[in-house]
Amino acid sequence: MRAFGKYIGYLGRVNEGLIEQMVLESLPKGKDSVYLDLGCGDGVKTLIRASHIGTGDVIGIEGDKNLLSAAKNGGIKTYWTDINLPWPINDVSVDCITATEVVEHLSDLDNFFSESKRILKPGGKIIISTENLAGYHNIFALLMGDQPYTGPYLSKVFSVGHRPCSKFYQGKNVAYPHLNVMTTKALRQLLSRYGFKVKGISGIGFYPLPPFLASLLASFDKYHASYCVVVAEK
After folding, report:
1. What are the Cα distances from residue 190, in Å, to 36, 79, 109, 122, 186?
2. Rounded to whole angstroms, how far apart are CA atoms 28 and 231?
3. For residue 3, what pLDDT band results from cuts at 50, 70 and 90?
Protein backbone atom coordinates (compact mmCIF):
# COMPACT_ATOMS: atom_id res chain seq x y z
CA MET A 1 0.00 0.00 0.00
CA ARG A 2 2.95 2.31 0.66
CA ALA A 3 4.08 1.78 -2.94
CA PHE A 4 0.62 2.73 -4.20
CA GLY A 5 0.72 5.90 -2.10
CA LYS A 6 4.07 6.81 -3.66
CA TYR A 7 2.64 6.13 -7.10
CA ILE A 8 -0.30 8.47 -6.41
CA GLY A 9 2.19 11.08 -5.20
CA TYR A 10 4.11 10.70 -8.46
CA LEU A 11 0.90 11.18 -10.46
CA GLY A 12 0.16 14.27 -8.41
CA ARG A 13 3.52 15.80 -9.33
CA VAL A 14 3.01 14.95 -13.01
CA ASN A 15 -0.44 16.54 -12.96
CA GLU A 16 0.91 19.63 -11.21
CA GLY A 17 3.43 20.05 -14.01
CA LEU A 18 0.76 19.60 -16.69
CA ILE A 19 -1.49 22.14 -15.00
CA GLU A 20 1.32 24.69 -14.86
CA GLN A 21 2.14 24.08 -18.52
CA MET A 22 -1.51 24.71 -19.43
CA VAL A 23 -1.55 27.90 -17.33
CA LEU A 24 1.59 29.21 -19.05
CA GLU A 25 0.13 28.50 -22.48
CA SER A 26 -3.05 30.39 -21.55
CA LEU A 27 -1.40 33.58 -20.28
CA PRO A 28 -1.81 36.77 -22.32
CA LYS A 29 1.19 38.72 -23.60
CA GLY A 30 1.95 42.35 -22.84
CA LYS A 31 4.79 44.23 -21.18
CA ASP A 32 2.34 46.78 -19.74
CA SER A 33 0.01 44.14 -18.32
CA VAL A 34 -0.86 44.09 -14.63
CA TYR A 35 -0.79 40.50 -13.38
CA LEU A 36 -2.32 39.21 -10.12
CA ASP A 37 -1.58 35.77 -8.69
CA LEU A 38 -4.03 34.69 -6.00
CA GLY A 39 -2.41 32.36 -3.49
CA CYS A 40 1.02 33.28 -4.82
CA GLY A 41 2.95 31.30 -2.19
CA ASP A 42 6.67 32.05 -2.33
CA GLY A 43 6.29 33.70 -5.73
CA VAL A 44 8.46 31.29 -7.73
CA LYS A 45 5.70 30.25 -10.14
CA THR A 46 4.32 33.79 -10.11
CA LEU A 47 7.54 35.22 -11.50
CA ILE A 48 7.82 32.52 -14.16
CA ARG A 49 4.30 33.36 -15.30
CA ALA A 50 5.04 37.08 -15.26
CA SER A 51 8.06 36.39 -17.47
CA HIS A 52 5.80 34.57 -19.96
CA ILE A 53 3.44 37.54 -19.98
CA GLY A 54 6.40 39.88 -20.38
CA THR A 55 5.48 42.16 -17.48
CA GLY A 56 7.18 43.38 -14.35
CA ASP A 57 3.96 44.71 -12.81
CA VAL A 58 3.15 41.74 -10.61
CA ILE A 59 0.84 41.50 -7.59
CA GLY A 60 0.52 38.57 -5.21
CA ILE A 61 -2.07 37.85 -2.54
CA GLU A 62 -1.26 35.18 0.03
CA GLY A 63 -2.52 34.28 3.49
CA ASP A 64 0.73 32.67 4.68
CA LYS A 65 2.99 35.44 5.96
CA ASN A 66 6.17 33.34 5.81
CA LEU A 67 5.67 32.49 2.14
CA LEU A 68 4.73 36.07 1.35
CA SER A 69 8.07 37.45 2.51
CA ALA A 70 9.87 35.29 -0.05
CA ALA A 71 7.54 36.58 -2.77
CA LYS A 72 8.14 40.17 -1.69
CA ASN A 73 11.90 39.64 -1.83
CA GLY A 74 11.44 38.46 -5.42
CA GLY A 75 10.03 41.84 -6.44
CA ILE A 76 6.32 41.04 -6.25
CA LYS A 77 3.96 43.64 -4.81
CA THR A 78 2.44 41.56 -2.05
CA TYR A 79 -0.67 41.69 0.10
CA TRP A 80 -1.15 39.57 3.19
CA THR A 81 -4.90 39.05 3.24
CA ASP A 82 -7.63 36.44 3.30
CA ILE A 83 -8.86 35.80 -0.27
CA ASN A 84 -12.34 35.27 1.21
CA LEU A 85 -12.42 38.99 2.06
CA PRO A 86 -12.46 42.03 -0.30
CA TRP A 87 -9.09 42.46 -2.00
CA PRO A 88 -7.01 45.66 -1.56
CA ILE A 89 -6.83 46.28 -5.32
CA ASN A 90 -8.41 49.09 -7.34
CA ASP A 91 -11.39 48.59 -9.62
CA VAL A 92 -10.70 47.78 -13.29
CA SER A 93 -6.92 47.72 -12.78
CA VAL A 94 -5.75 44.16 -13.59
CA ASP A 95 -5.21 42.47 -16.97
CA CYS A 96 -4.76 38.87 -15.84
CA ILE A 97 -5.57 36.81 -12.74
CA THR A 98 -4.37 33.30 -11.96
CA ALA A 99 -5.80 31.13 -9.19
CA THR A 100 -4.25 27.66 -9.29
CA GLU A 101 -5.50 25.16 -6.71
CA VAL A 102 -7.06 28.01 -4.71
CA VAL A 103 -10.85 27.99 -5.07
CA GLU A 104 -11.31 24.63 -3.35
CA HIS A 105 -9.81 26.14 -0.18
CA LEU A 106 -12.16 29.14 -0.07
CA SER A 107 -15.24 29.50 2.11
CA ASP A 108 -16.73 32.36 0.05
CA LEU A 109 -16.75 31.68 -3.69
CA ASP A 110 -19.10 34.59 -4.35
CA ASN A 111 -16.48 36.99 -3.03
CA PHE A 112 -13.87 35.36 -5.26
CA PHE A 113 -15.88 35.76 -8.46
CA SER A 114 -17.27 39.22 -7.68
CA GLU A 115 -13.85 40.57 -6.71
CA SER A 116 -12.29 39.07 -9.83
CA LYS A 117 -14.88 40.79 -11.98
CA ARG A 118 -14.47 44.07 -10.09
CA ILE A 119 -10.71 44.40 -10.56
CA LEU A 120 -10.34 42.99 -14.08
CA LYS A 121 -10.21 45.36 -17.03
CA PRO A 122 -12.63 44.76 -19.92
CA GLY A 123 -11.21 41.83 -21.88
CA GLY A 124 -9.08 40.85 -18.88
CA LYS A 125 -8.38 37.15 -18.41
CA ILE A 126 -8.80 34.83 -15.42
CA ILE A 127 -7.22 31.37 -15.32
CA ILE A 128 -8.44 28.91 -12.68
CA SER A 129 -7.28 25.39 -11.93
CA THR A 130 -8.93 23.14 -9.38
CA GLU A 131 -9.77 19.53 -8.61
CA ASN A 132 -12.85 18.14 -10.33
CA LEU A 133 -15.55 16.70 -8.11
CA ALA A 134 -16.85 14.71 -11.11
CA GLY A 135 -13.50 12.98 -11.64
CA TYR A 136 -13.94 9.23 -12.06
CA HIS A 137 -11.86 8.56 -8.94
CA ASN A 138 -14.40 10.58 -6.93
CA ILE A 139 -17.32 8.81 -8.59
CA PHE A 140 -15.70 5.47 -7.68
CA ALA A 141 -15.29 6.61 -4.06
CA LEU A 142 -18.97 7.55 -3.87
CA LEU A 143 -20.00 4.20 -5.37
CA MET A 144 -17.97 2.55 -2.60
CA GLY A 145 -19.85 4.67 -0.05
CA ASP A 146 -16.79 6.79 0.73
CA GLN A 147 -16.10 10.51 0.82
CA PRO A 148 -14.84 11.91 -2.53
CA TYR A 149 -11.05 12.15 -2.65
CA THR A 150 -11.22 15.87 -3.39
CA GLY A 151 -13.35 16.49 -0.33
CA PRO A 152 -14.79 18.54 1.18
CA TYR A 153 -12.50 17.44 4.01
CA LEU A 154 -14.50 16.76 7.14
CA SER A 155 -11.74 16.88 9.75
CA LYS A 156 -8.54 18.82 10.34
CA VAL A 157 -7.26 15.94 12.46
CA PHE A 158 -8.24 12.70 10.70
CA SER A 159 -8.28 11.48 7.12
CA VAL A 160 -11.88 10.41 6.47
CA GLY A 161 -12.40 8.27 3.37
CA HIS A 162 -9.53 8.33 0.85
CA ARG A 163 -9.26 4.53 0.73
CA PRO A 164 -6.84 2.98 -0.07
CA CYS A 165 -4.65 6.08 0.47
CA SER A 166 -5.77 7.18 3.96
CA LYS A 167 -2.24 7.25 5.36
CA PHE A 168 -1.04 9.28 2.39
CA TYR A 169 -3.72 11.93 3.07
CA GLN A 170 -3.33 11.91 6.87
CA GLY A 171 -2.12 15.30 8.11
CA LYS A 172 -2.54 17.03 4.74
CA ASN A 173 -5.94 18.48 5.66
CA VAL A 174 -4.86 20.67 8.57
CA ALA A 175 -3.47 23.90 7.14
CA TYR A 176 -5.41 24.22 3.89
CA PRO A 177 -8.52 22.00 3.93
CA HIS A 178 -10.76 21.64 0.87
CA LEU A 179 -13.97 23.49 1.71
CA ASN A 180 -15.64 24.08 -1.66
CA VAL A 181 -15.12 21.46 -4.33
CA MET A 182 -17.02 21.58 -7.60
CA THR A 183 -17.40 19.90 -10.93
CA THR A 184 -15.83 21.42 -14.02
CA LYS A 185 -19.28 22.19 -15.38
CA ALA A 186 -20.26 23.95 -12.14
CA LEU A 187 -17.15 26.14 -12.37
CA ARG A 188 -18.05 27.01 -15.94
CA GLN A 189 -21.59 27.89 -14.87
CA LEU A 190 -20.41 30.07 -11.98
CA LEU A 191 -18.12 32.03 -14.28
CA SER A 192 -20.95 32.55 -16.75
CA ARG A 193 -23.36 33.66 -14.01
CA TYR A 194 -20.85 36.32 -12.96
CA GLY A 195 -20.64 37.63 -16.50
CA PHE A 196 -17.40 36.01 -17.66
CA LYS A 197 -17.00 34.50 -21.12
CA VAL A 198 -15.47 31.02 -20.84
CA LYS A 199 -12.82 30.69 -23.55
CA GLY A 200 -11.31 27.30 -22.81
CA ILE A 201 -11.63 24.22 -20.60
CA SER A 202 -8.98 21.52 -20.26
CA GLY A 203 -8.99 18.28 -18.28
CA ILE A 204 -5.82 17.07 -16.56
CA GLY A 205 -5.13 13.60 -15.16
CA PHE A 206 -7.26 10.51 -14.62
CA TYR A 207 -6.37 8.88 -11.30
CA PRO A 208 -5.07 6.18 -11.02
CA LEU A 209 -4.14 5.81 -14.70
CA PRO A 210 -0.52 6.38 -15.79
CA PRO A 211 0.23 9.76 -17.44
CA PHE A 212 0.02 8.64 -21.08
CA LEU A 213 -3.38 6.97 -20.71
CA ALA A 214 -4.64 9.76 -18.45
CA SER A 215 -3.73 12.46 -20.98
CA LEU A 216 -5.35 10.48 -23.78
CA LEU A 217 -8.58 10.00 -21.84
CA ALA A 218 -8.65 13.62 -20.62
CA SER A 219 -8.48 14.82 -24.22
CA PHE A 220 -11.73 12.94 -24.92
CA ASP A 221 -13.55 13.43 -21.61
CA LYS A 222 -12.44 16.62 -19.87
CA TYR A 223 -15.51 16.72 -17.63
CA HIS A 224 -14.47 13.55 -15.79
CA ALA A 225 -10.73 14.29 -15.54
CA SER A 226 -9.16 14.67 -12.10
CA TYR A 227 -8.36 18.38 -12.53
CA CYS A 228 -9.52 21.20 -14.75
CA VAL A 229 -8.01 24.40 -16.08
CA VAL A 230 -10.61 26.98 -17.09
CA VAL A 231 -9.81 30.20 -18.94
CA ALA A 232 -12.34 33.04 -19.04
CA GLU A 233 -12.50 36.72 -19.99
CA LYS A 234 -14.43 39.63 -18.56
Report:
1. 20, 26, 9, 18, 6
2. 11
3. confident
pLDDT band of 186, cuts 50, 70, 90: very high
Measured torsion, CA atoms of residues 162, 45, 81, 169, in degrees rounded to the nearest 10: 10
Q: What is the pLDDT of residues 75-87, one digit of tens each?
A: 999 999 999 999 9
Distances (CA, A) of 158 to 9, 162, 168: 19, 11, 12
- The DSSP result for 12-28, as a single string, is HHHHHHHHHHHHHHH--
Residue 131: strand, helix, or coil:
strand
Residues facing residue 128 across a β-bridge: 99, 230
Reported as type and span, the H/E element at residue 164 is none
Could you give the domains of the chain? 2-131+180-233 (3.40.50.150)
Q: Which pLDDT band holds residue 103 (cuts at 50, 70, 90)?
A: very high
Task: Give the pLDDT score at 45.
Answer: 97
**Residues in a beta bridge with 200:** 231
